[in-house]
Automatic annotation (TrEMBL):
GO terms for cellular component: bacterial-type flagellum hook; extracellular region. Residues 6-35 form the Flagellar basal body rod protein N-terminal domain. Residues 596-632 form the Flagellar basal-body/hook protein C-terminal domain. Pfam families: Flg_bb_rod, Flg_bbr_C, FlgK_D1. Belongs to the flagella basal body rod proteins family. One of its GO terms (molecular function) is structural molecule activity. It comes from the Bacteria. It comes from Shewanella woodyi (strain ATCC 51908 / MS32). This is Flagellar hook-associated protein 1. Residues 94-322 form the Flagellar hook-associated protein FlgK helical domain. It is found in: Bacterial flagellum; Secreted. Keywords: Bacterial flagellum, Cell projection, Cilium, Flagellum, Secreted. PROSITE patterns: FLAGELLA_BB_ROD. InterPro entries: Flag_bb_rod_N, Flagellar_basal_body_rod_CS, Flg_bb/hook_C_dom, FlgK, FlgK_helical.
Amino acid sequence: MGMDLLNIARTGVLASQSQLAVTSNNIANANTQGYHRQVAEQSSLDNQRLGGNFFGSGTYISDVKRIYNDYAARELRIGQTTVSEAQATQIKMGELDQLFSQIGKSIPQGLNDLFAGLNSLADLPDDIGIRNNVLGSAGHLASSLNQMQAHLDGQMKQTNDQIAGITDRINEIGNELGHINRELMKSQGEDMSLLDKQDALIQELSQYSQVNVIPLDTGAKSIMLGGAVMLVSGEVSMAIGTTAGDPFPNESRVTSSAGAQTLIIDPSQMGGQLGALYEFRNETLVQAQLEVGQLALGVADAFNQAQSQGFDLSGALGQNIFTDINDPDMAVGRVGGFGTNTGNANLRVNIDDTSALTGGSYDLTFTAPGTYELTDINTGVVTPLTLNGSQLDGGDGFSIHIDSGAFVDGDKFEIRPSAGAAAGIKVEMTDPKGIAAAGPKITAGTANSGNTEIEILSIDRNNVNLPLTGSELTYQIDPVANTFTVFDASGTLVSAAAPYTPPTITSNGFSFDVNTTSTSTESFTFDFTFAEGDNSNAVSMAQLSEAKLMNSGGSTLTDVYEGTKLVVGGKAKAASVAVGSAEAVFTQAYNRVQSESGVNLDEEAGNLIRFQQAYQASARIMTTASEIFDTLFSSVR
């Protein structure tokens, strides 16, 4: 009986020692990220029969378990993905909002300064100092647009770098998980330390993308990203990476590689930081770039058109202040051909009407034998295009020119009419005398339909027939027969009806374009008298500040920028609200996991005292058993 007592005490000491070890490990790892609380399950040894009775024979630690709730862990991963996505969106939208509201405020200020200068010029149209100020303001506006585009390009590069950095980290995690899986296979998934490391890595992975975990019978876990991309299969790790964008190389894509096979994947469906960065770049940043480019095209076209309708200080027709809207420097990036194209068509996009531009992107597709369709990426509206020679007509303010090569069935291009304009805009005029403050007097006939516009192309002041005050000329234009008849100031016929090739008429020392939808005869009287004190064209240019020149007559130049700024600000605010909601959900999931798997120091401290007392009591039993044996041996000597 004494021997049994000693064995019982020994098992109690060993069991208490194990309980103390588990409790101590829990306390030591209370602040270890990803650690799951462990518990030692204690059971009784089988009873022994002695003299018709059953006596207990002690205790043992039957199992050490890791407290883990698969449902709670999955809920936490989902919460982590959502909150990481929301936080990444908030950071990027905050940066863009600050860019438009702080750095970008020089753009509307530049427009205001330019219009203020034109108002001053209207008061003193021959003042060289004021003319210099106007050119200076124009240069400041162009520079502000250049700088905004440079900052947006910097945001594009930074976002691409962040995407590349995330893919590198995902690959590192994938390799580590593959190694852990190999080790877990050796222990059939019983190594709790490895399981904690595995869960910590999976939890980190869920920051970057939605994660699906597939337990295997071998004790390993396969990992999928976004429900479609396999990252780890057993002990085999795949790889993801980035490659040049298609059709625009500077907009990188994400790839998934397994062996020699590489696939392009859609990160916007993966969630997490990766999905947030892609959605920000493709849905917000690119659109902001295009709308800033739309503004640059509107500015250049509005002032260049106004210049072309006035006279400079020498009496010549005004020349461009800004870079021409179809100059190669303003047209960079308007067309992107997809890598799957088999044709060799070389395309060029020409801006025909800046007021009709939407600041959007379009997909151009060709279906043999001759179907060309333009799809608005933002709205999904499909527009059939008409091929006139080598020109495709029907776009929103632009036409597409096939400069060389040919389409093949299935070829596809992305068209961005306003791309690159903000980077390419410059002030071309260097001589302040070139500002066309004076203007011709063009009077429309009272019976005109109102559907005809005249655009002066050139004048020759050496031509003796050029119409001046007292010798004005009136042109009656028949847009159906494409003829024009000229009368002098007294109504006397100067030249009988003569044919012209639309839209240009050249006669009596000047030429002009007739833009009309009328079917009736239209009449215009011309007077090209020039005076240095004439301010009529300067007044017209100053009035451009209030003119609805953009978005089909719905916006002023300033409205275009303010509209983009408002959209960005709204998205930034929405992102901030989304973060609050996501963090609340994540906190709830985290607290649930902690309530089950986390270490409660108060509880562990209580356990420590309890198991210490049990250890001491068992040790006391051993002492008592030893004393009994000593007494027994002494009594038989």
